[in-house]
Each structure stands twice: as structure tokens, then as C-alpha cells.
């Protein structure tokens, strides 16, 4: 199967919640062979984890990253093609006063140049990007 969906941080971390969103969990299972994430999202997960003090919560997150994400979900990089689209799109958005966060615009660029649907609960953070396909599995 080929890649279809790029998961944002809030989707990828949903299984760690005490009561995960059932729609997200169902879609993660249904599309398990069609999902990827990015080096940017991977960084956000690791950074969030490493900021925590040693605790059961941190151990749970570390285990999830090591045993679920790393072996099962491809992590695709921010490359030259994404950087070019990112620069053009970021410039366009800045000119109209809608400057996105740098990380979100990198994630959007990776999704766009790889022709992937970005799955996020933060739809408004990505709404102004040109021709970016977005889905919200939380709805």
C-alpha cells in the first residue's frame, strides 16, 4: 500500500491519552499501512517527552515512541523540495498577514510535496496554505 496520510503531532499522540478519541483510534487502525509522519512531528514528540521529569508518564511516552512509532510509522524528512515550497508559501502568507508557525509550515510543506493528506485536530493552523489537503479525524 502507498502512503496517503501524514499525521500531525496531536493525532500521533492521541493513543497516549487516558481516553483516546474513538474516531482517531479507528482511523489509525483502518489506515495503519497508509500513514506516515515527519521528522518535525517526531521532534515535537521527543522534545515533549524529554521535557518531562523522570516519571511513569515519561516512561509510557518513551515506550510508545520506541515500540509503536519508530518501528511502524515511516518518518519522512523535510527535504529540498519541501523547503522550496515552504519558502514560497511562507512568503505568500506573510504578505497577507497570516504568518504560520515555522514548524507547522514545514509539516504543511512535507505533506504538500509528497501529495499526502495532513491529518490534524488543528485545522485552523493549516487552513491558509494553498492546495493543502486536510482531514480532522477528531470530528
Short summary of the structure?
The protein has helices at residues 9-12, 22-30, 39-51, 56-72, 80-95, 102-113, 123-126; strands spanning 5-7, 35-38, 75-76, 117-119, 134-135. The protein is α/β, with parallel strands linked by helices and 139 residues long.
General description of the model:
The chain has a five-stranded parallel beta sheet with strand order 3-2-1-4-5. The mean pLDDT is 96. The longest helix has 17 residues, at 56-72. The chain has a single domain (5-135), classed as Rossmann fold (3-Layer(aba) Sandwich), CATH 3.40.50. The two termini are 26 Å apart. It is built from seven helices and five strands; from the N terminus they run βααβααβααβαβ. It is α/β, with parallel strands linked by helices and 139 residues long. It is 54% helix and 10% strand.
Measured between the Cα atoms of the first and last residue, the distance is 26 Å
CATH superfamily: 5'-nuclease
Strand count: 5
Sheet with most strands: strand arrangement: 3-2-1-4-5
Strand percentage lies at: 5-15%
Helical fraction equals 40-55%
What's the gyration radius in Å? 15 Å
Residue windows where pLDDT falls under 50 for at least 5 positions: none
Large-scale geometry = globular
Give the tally of structural domains: 1
Amino acid at each position: 500500500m502507498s502512503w496517503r496520510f501524514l499525521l500531525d503531532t496531536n493525532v500521533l499522540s492521541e493513543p497516549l491519552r487516558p481516553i483516546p478519541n474513538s474516531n482517531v483510534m479507528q482511523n489509525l487502525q483502518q489506515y495503519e499501512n497508509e500513514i506516515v509522519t515527519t521528522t518535525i512531528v517526531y521532534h515535537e514528540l521527543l522534545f515533549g517527552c524529554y521535557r518531562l521529569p523522570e516519571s511513569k508518564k515519561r516512561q509510557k511516552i518513551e515506550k510508545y515512541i520506541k515500540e509503536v512509532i519508530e518501528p511502524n510509522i515511516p518518518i519522512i524528512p523535510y527535504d529540498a523540495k519541501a523547503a522550496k515550497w515552504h519558502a514560497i508559501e511562507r512568503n505568500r502568507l506573510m504578505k497577507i498577514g497570516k504568518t504560520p508557525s515555522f514548524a507547522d509550515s514545514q509539516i504543511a510543506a512535507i505533506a504538500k510535496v509528497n501529495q499526502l493528506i495532513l491529518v490534524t485536530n488543528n485545522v485552523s493552523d493549516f487552513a491558509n496554505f494553498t492546495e493543502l489537503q486536510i482531514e480532522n479525524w477528531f470530528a
